[in-house]
Amino acid sequence: MRLRPSLLLPCLLTFCLAVPLFAAQNPVTFPLNDIHAGMKGIAYTIFTGDQVEKMDVTVLGVLKNAMGPKQDVILVELSGADVAKTGVVAGMSGSPVYFDGKLAGAISLKIGTFTKDAVAGVTPIQNMFAIQKAMANPPGNTNGAPAAFSTISQSGAASQKVALGDGRFLVPIETPLVFSGVMPQTLALFGKQFHAYGMSTMVGGNASPRPDDAKLKPGDMVGMELVSGDLSMDAGCTVTAIVGDEVFVCGHPLFGFGSVALPMTRGHVVTTLASSLESTKIMNSGGPIGTITEDRVTAVVGRIGASPPTLPVEVNVTTPTEQRHFHFNVVQNPKLTPLLVAVAAYNGIVSNTSYTEGTTLQLNGHIDIAGHPSVELRDMFSPTDLPIPNGYQLAVAVQSAFASIYTNPYEQPKVEKVTLNVTSRSENRWAAIDGAWSNKSEAQPGETLRIKVLLRPYRGVPFLREIPLTIPAQAARGNLQILVSDASSLDRMRDPFPGASAHLQDLNELIRVINRERQNDRLYVTLLQNSPTLLVEDKELPNVPASEINVLDQRRVPGGAQMLFQSVIGEHSVPMSQVITGQQYLSIAIK
């Protein structure tokens, strides 16, 4: 069949426009040295749905070394499509730019905030493909921050456009971080931490997997999944190029972590929200399509195929009226995972319909590690007068414990599961130690004392608690001290030097030290004798003779030994079902 002349030109135009989109495998690149001011090109991105749209591109100039040594930026002005309304959009990072049908780079940078002109920086494709050398010879994980960008003085149109930024730096375009199943309190509390990574947080959703999710072309959206399950978090970028099974996106770093293993998903744009402050794409995350393997200064690279394993996190919340169970899967990364576990924990707590401020939270959980004992997580968290949500204290405590394990200096742990059981109690359960005394001022070894403690609860009537304390048979004659205290006071006394865990020898010792920490919902009575105690690694050696101290000092024990000038010869505690604070010292004479 012969085409009519009137239809020939539109068909040819359609074919020409389609060539860059579907010539995805091993694209022909445009040399950076041939790019000059005034050149016209096209770029592709999505504004709504899965329809890739064309934008017109005009080169304003090339900024030499703008991203660092030998890291040039092509400065362009965008027009056409919806650009006049939206400007440079969060999520546009990675949109491919073509000259004469050849791939020149990815839209990746913007100039400041409130810039009315749609002026963008383009990362040259040669700099993006240079990551392949690092992938062939990986130097190991890098945890550096994204490079700083500075404005460069240029002549002609380029300098005029840069001046419109009013001295603002060239910065990476924000990456949309789409939350699904998230509570507003969670976004308000943790959003700033993700914004510091150059992300724009917003509520989105999940789309059902499709058979063609992995069939990508330049201009499509992909998601980088951080959390999935009852809470999902996905960062979104635009596809620049596909080389074999490798997908190049963003044109700038996501976090700048180097070699990574993050699940890669298909992204579907719902709509593009225009804003004078920050236009952004609202995205749904589709099915898994592979693994993000590189997160470097000029691009993020993924590989089509299987997704990496993730860490299961279970949060079970019990209130007086109901129980709720939440399941999450979190990416495994030393910098991200502790924060994401805290986000999942907090979101699970506040999403319970019975949760209210002013309640006390009881935590009983564990971190399961292959080949090692579990890390026990037990504590109680009462409300404070500070403007901090109740659940935040618990989330931060979990984050701290998890980080100490996950980022330990001894080995990369294989964390199998995190289980958090949280019980919410309907009142402020808190009590301070107001006084303490003994029924006797003198005693003999083997004798039992009755220690009475006056406790002042939150907005309640003070009450007495009596605790029996037996003097050990080996107690020496002389004066002994009795410490009536909360958990933190006793822990500080036994480990007075912050960072002492750095002198441990392996992960097992670190776990033993963590599991030995006292619970803050118990009242402790400790008998102290004036004789030295040595802390060597994870071991306490009480009543150490001077000869042994000299031997250890001469041998220079690895990591060093800490000496305390008191030894614990007896310790007793009772559960209180409320957070205990404060301390009192008593003195007793042993005859």
Explain what you see.
It is a single chain. With 591 residues, this protein is an alpha+beta fold. It has 4 domains: 14-170, Thrombin, subunit H; 174-304, Thrombin, subunit H; 311-425, Ubiquitin-like (UB roll) (Roll), CATH 3.10.20; 430-590, no CATH class. Helix content is 19%, strand content 42%. The protein contains 11 helices and 33 strands. A 6-stranded antiparallel barrel has the order 1-2-3-6-5-4. A 6-stranded antiparallel β-barrel has the order 11-12-13-16-15-14. It has a 5-stranded mixed beta sheet with strand order 23-33-26-27-31. A hairpin with a 2-residue loop joins strand 11 and strand 12 (232-243). Helix 7 runs antiparallel to helix 8. The longest helix has 18 residues, at 5-22. The radius of gyration is 31 Å and the shape is elongated. The protein starts with a helix and ends with a strand. Mean pLDDT is 81; it is low at 1-23, 138-167, 496-501 and 554-559.
